[in-house]
Amino acid sequence: MTNNEIMTSIKDERLIEKRRNQMIQGAITLFKKKGFHRTTTREIAKESGFSIGTLYEYIRTKEDVLFLVVDAIYDKVKKRLMSMMHIEDPSIEHLMRVIDSYFRVVDDMQEEIIIMYQEVKSLQKHTQEYVLQKERDMVHMLQQLIQTCAPKVSKADAELMANNIFVQGHMWGFRRWALHKPFTLDEYIERQLEYLQITIKNL
Amino acid sequence: MTNNEIMTSIKDERLIEKRRNQMIQGAITLFKKKGFHRTTTREIAKESGFSIGTLYEYIRTKEDVLFLVVDAIYDKVKKRLMSMMHIEDPSIEHLMRVIDSYFRVVDDMQEEIIIMYQEVKSLQKHTQEYVLQKERDMVHMLQQLIQTCAPKVSKADAELMANNIFVQGHMWGFRRWALHKPFTLDEYIERQLEYLQITIKNL
Amino acid sequence: MTNNEIMTSIKDERLIEKRRNQMIQGAITLFKKKGFHRTTTREIAKESGFSIGTLYEYIRTKEDVLFLVVDAIYDKVKKRLMSMMHIEDPSIEHLMRVIDSYFRVVDDMQEEIIIMYQEVKSLQKHTQEYVLQKERDMVHMLQQLIQTCAPKVSKADAELMANNIFVQGHMWGFRRWALHKPFTLDEYIERQLEYLQITIKNL
Amino acid sequence: MTNNEIMTSIKDERLIEKRRNQMIQGAITLFKKKGFHRTTTREIAKESGFSIGTLYEYIRTKEDVLFLVVDAIYDKVKKRLMSMMHIEDPSIEHLMRVIDSYFRVVDDMQEEIIIMYQEVKSLQKHTQEYVLQKERDMVHMLQQLIQTCAPKVSKADAELMANNIFVQGHMWGFRRWALHKPFTLDEYIERQLEYLQITIKNL
DNA sequence: GATGAATGAGCATTCATTCAT
DNA sequence: GATGAATGAATGCTCATTCAT
To answer: Taking the CB of residue D84, how many other CB atoms lie within 10 A of it?
Structure first.
């Protein structure tokens, strides 16, 4: 399943894209405030700037909106992550720079990431799988970057580290009640990177 | 707010405890399968072994059930964590043993922990705060254990490490789709502990 | 149907009377505040000083409570009215004195009278009829007093006047929002009595 | 608060009016039979000719229906009263003619008036006040008519008389069990008007 | 006689979805 | 393509009444 396998009765592709983007923006705004379940389709339509009837011209069920949203969030993270990944010179420093950037991306997208932690389970198994694959892909990219930049790290270690880094990024968002008081973002990044460097060097 | 500030019209304290435990068990079973929002109060009553009327003799709103559940989960983790924490001899080895146990506890409670990640946000701010305080307390315990067992680690580092460890525990549950294929629990624990030891030694 | 035709499983007559009086007092307090429909049987039991189980030992349905209440209110008005009615000397002055007293009784029982205006319709037809008969009896007493004290007034006029007087009494209670600002009770009574006297004299 | 401050999600004003009228008619039919509290919203929807969902598109709570009903009843009485009030020649005869008409209006609306006596108290204080103001306005109109047609009557007397007349009208409806046997409507009106005329002339 | 825990039918209200215009 | 009125199944919650202790 992909984004454009969602049923619609509209022919004009350009319009579909435009409407769905409106919908995603509107829905994200609302999901941030109230979560998926407490948000009604009417509210989504209104926030998106069109009528409930029109909403249902572009999706089939409320869950489709959630899918569109989650998918869009993943794509956004992925796109921003990708733009930093092209390896100029495969050094530890370069790895650190990428991870630093990643932490800043998730800082910027804290609320979107919280949505994902809370709502992915509400997707159908099938759709969930599609979305998780995207996450796996991203983790895999990071894993490979680790292996490239720190060739001595084993594949298994690289994989686990990639997961650790990913979750440490998210954690900055979903545990802000625990972390934002003792640390600034810069401090947080600096510490996590230091732990990682130490680990890589001394494995 | 504490567990027994939830309104009930029942006078027999022993019965309240018994019925609420039935309720918590029933609700957890259902929340694992369908989440809080998709579970109806009628289903909770049925699964708990009594009627909808009886359910509402022991709580006031559906959210009370969620609170009871989340509170019970935290208490269970905390209790099991506490039982391992009494310091015999404050060494790195002892620290590792405690964390190892912690990882095994959360492995055992994976689904309960997923419930928390998904549903804590559905609690009222006020109740949420009460619950998060419990988590803070646990993290704090771990932080202090780190400082005791590894006195050279700074307070800030101990705090961040405690948070990292906590989330790495949870992560084993909520990212099983990413971790359970490449790692067994033993491998997972062994790797995470090794990273930690390296970091502590080389900070 | 009478008061003691209401089913009960209790044998001790004295106890029945005691409990029912508690119940009536409790219910009136609550009905004044919230009306019959918004008051629960649990509240009535509590306000009466015993348990819901006990309440149902002395009545069969919630409507029985309403009946007991309405019946008690009528009896109280009637008793107080009766105590003034024994004719010493059948003059217009005496008639006016009785009516004056009646107005003061209903002033004293405003809220009870409002209960009746609002809730009698909630009784079963059968019970309603029993209660209305009590009102008819009272009106009839007044009618006869009028005829005795003002023999020239026709039977029909006496009947209509009696009804007018009754309702003017109630009106002081249920239209206080219209009457209590422009008139004191004394002024109200004085005016109504004057209109009546004029009418009787000039018919 | 006015009629069209009641929340609705419908945009078509004409439709709102149409549906609300259906609703008012349906509700009055049911309230006459069973009163407000014993009538369910589903019954109201059905009697009005649409589904429960549609009902709630035009109101927010069940109490809104009661308000709509009470408001409509007042408006109807007021409209019919107003249509008779334009003073051609300010004489006692004219006053009597207006009051005669008023009695015939309330005869026609007996059951609606009973609804008001029973249910106004169920409105929120705020809404209740709005409705009572309408009644005050009507009484005030009558009071002024009395003063115009019988200039010797004092303001206070005119006010009390206006209230008496109003309640005598209602009384014909809510005490039919006491009045409809001894009197026809014509007799009732004739007698009440005579008492009034006598009083005015001899004050 | 008194108690209060248990019951479940019943109610107000919501909201995803459809479809005529 | 867009609109928004209509629908009714579903849901949280209440409360009169019963009955075992």
So the answer is: 16
